[in-house]
Amino acid sequence: MSIFADKRTKLVVQGITGRDGSFHAKQMLEYGTQVVAGVTPGKGGQTFEGSVPIFDTMADAVRETGANASVIYVPARFAADAVYEAADSGVRLVVCITEGLPVLDMTRVMPFVRERGVRLIGPNCPGLISPGQTKIGIIPGSICREGRIGVVSRSGTLTYEIVHQLSVNGFGQSSCVGIGGDPIIGTNFIDCLEAFEADPGTDAVVMIGEIGGTDEQTAAQFVREHMQKPVVGFIAGQTAPPGRRMGHAGAIISGSSGTAAEKMAAFEEAGIGVMKRPADVVPLLKARRS
Amino acid sequence: MNLHEYQARALLKAAGVPVPDGDVATTPAEVEAIAARLGGRVVVKAQVHAGGRGKAGGVKLADDPKDARAKAEQILGMQIKGLTVQKVLVVPAADIASESYVGIIVDRASQRPVFMVSPAGGVDIEQVAAETPEKIFREPIDPRYGLLTHQAMGLAFHLYRDIAQVRQAATVMQKLYRAFFDAGASLAEINPLVTTPDGTVLALDAKIVVDDNELERRPKIAALRDTSSEAPSEVEAREANLTYIKLDGNVGCCVNGAGLAMATMDLVKYYGGDPANFLDIGGSSNPAKVVSALKIITSDKNVKAILFNIFGGITRCDDVANGIVAATKEFTLDRPMVIRLTGTNDTLAVQILKKAGFEALTDMDEAVQQAVKLAKGAA
To answer: Which residues of A touch B312 (CB under 8 A)?
Structure first.
């Protein structure tokens, strides 16, 4: 089992002929994802890798293929428009990999996707993978194993590090979702925690946060009030100085709020197992399973 | 990207916000000339990206043009929080009847721009928020409509009783919102917004922070970047498309991905070391980026050992390995290096490194411990 996407998910790749889009479309096809269409305006009628039809618009792609999800690899200056187009096309899930969307654009994107009942994941995220079923985005399939641990993270490579630790120690994953490192994102920790709690294929959840904002604190409260399944968590940026943007637009300590210490304390209080370092994930999960 | 006060003032003025006359200068002679033109008493204000300028002696009142020149001589060239003052703003000393705060931030939780006003202006708004939160009033804005008139009036009534001042303040806020949106800002504030004894509402100080993601489509705003006010290593990193932040430790870190870069710094600390920097080489690696990264890390004389931590996904480990080898051909690496590589093409990377005489580890904890030990041994 999994959350948000499974083997039935029929995916459109927006920007399939671009450098990143074509590379990752191939990777997704190899993994077994049902890539049913690509979209690049002006290239409608062509095919990708001899099998995937390309359309000029999302509306055409969805009408002709019955796609129910899309993934976006277009450059930042076109990305907000790509999200609007996807949300209007009838797909239920939009995953935006593109990094660099202005936050003011996101303030207008969010009410738009919400009014249409569309789930947006990202932007500036690695996407999601339900091992053995489907991968949407850029998470390397080779590090994942099928299993019963749910993973949700604001980071990319740090997620790979922790998923790798899980896989080599016999903890496979139901789904891994990278929600992205921007200040405004379509899907947050709570959306994922809620879905993992309801997923019969998930036994425990690993939550990977970082400095900046208060999402981890509100997520911790959700865990305390609404979750039966065990949760373990990590916060990156314990040594980050205040006032500096640590790579991700959202990873910034403002004043005394958004620090790692504050977030780890909120985890502790909510009964979440606090990882001091990535390698702690396996012993903490083992302790909670017994 | 932070704008200087004089740049923020200019943007507000262009949007129609009333700001006092004034000008920016780089020499005491220019300051004297501006003061003579303005007439009367003036304030000379250091233009640096640091809070607490006043306390640091970077804001001074001058009685006449000669005095302004003398004050400028003290301020220009002084250090405020490690930054050298290269420019000053000269403005007339205003008679102030009241001071308030108006500002807009993009709020993560509500996913909207939020207006904040407070009658307790002239001090740090975070201090007001901590000590007297009841004196801050908020209004979330629907970005599709902007700051509506009734919202602006409602906010202004929290600041003033006199209807003429309420209307002036409401207009200022709507223009501030326009300037905020047009600049692609993540924060815009006027602090203080003052009233003069004759009842005029004026923006005395302004701060604008621009969202870096907006700069590509706003070349005029991007051109306002003042690289002379930033650390040279950080400027160099940005030009090489890397994210680098200098810290005080001695373990130089080179990592792919922001989250993993932070976690690596944390692990250095966990094992008793001190990270010298945050450095993210980004997603799609190419060897040239690795060369730039090594140049930047080694230019920090505090660095005693260098730690590579690469988890290959989009980043190919062989690209990183080739970059390391290329760097050692370009310049001599005079400090020990620990390399950890896992993921895409790691076997190939290990071969490349072996041929050049380097060893590579696969475990993050082991690599960090080694780097910390080496840095301590050399210190």
So the answer is: 140
